[in-house]
Write a structure and sequence with these properties.
The protein is mostly helical and 261 residues long. The chain folds into two domains: 92 residues, Death Domain, Fas (Orthogonal Bundle), CATH 1.10.533.10; 131 residues, Orthogonal Bundle (Death Domain, Fas), CATH 1.10.533.10. 67% of the residues lie in helices and 0% in strands. It is globular.
Amino acid sequence: MEEDIISRDSHIKYNLESYLSYICECVDVKDLLLNLDYFTGEQRQEIKQLVRENPVRATQKAFKTLMNKDSPGLFTALLQAVEEDYPKIVKLLSGEVVKCDENYRRIVNLFATTVINEVQPQELLISLRKYNVLTALEAEETMKDEQNYGKTRAALYIITNIHRHVEDWFKYFLISLIENGCEHLAQILDDDMVQKIKAQASYNPDNENTDEEKQCNDVKEHIQNIHHKVSVDTKIKNIPLPEKEGYTKLQNVHSNGDIAA
């Protein structure tokens, strides 16, 4: 049994090392600190300090700290810690194929200003949550940003985080734009994919009283509850303004093909 754990840990660690750069751009280090007990108090403090300067480097430091530890079951615990919110990262760590999304991230980055200036964050959130593109915590953070800094800041938060969790995030982002009256923005991003989406039987904007509509209503109610909670909370202070260099930072993952172990 112990040999099986060691073997599984080695497999996960190998995949983590192989795709560390990409994984660090997706996983929020706060989730690692919250769900794993393998960091010392000093290590946690150093990582939290680094988050303020460079979140991606902070995540990288956290992962490298874990990789330097000799603790059976650690990487199995890591897999379980990200299982709920990062399904595409779980696939990578498990050795499964994940479609490369580098081009999609570049497209979103290229047209980020246009998208941010036109979308309504609260409405977009309902669709994005329905497709699990953003987590409940990220939805709450978006609402806080809109409450304290306005729609532009909230839309920026959405654009910055939509790539993190699910493999087909770009397709769901386009669907969300279409569902919220921004088909022209979806067409700017990828008109070919928009046409495919509209041709699919699973996408039918006139379909009423379906399970999908019920799910959408449930998510809408959740977003409204978050909005009420944020409205009565004290305004957040000392949140850094967006970087002047651009809306997102893109790094090369793989220039060709899929991401796979």
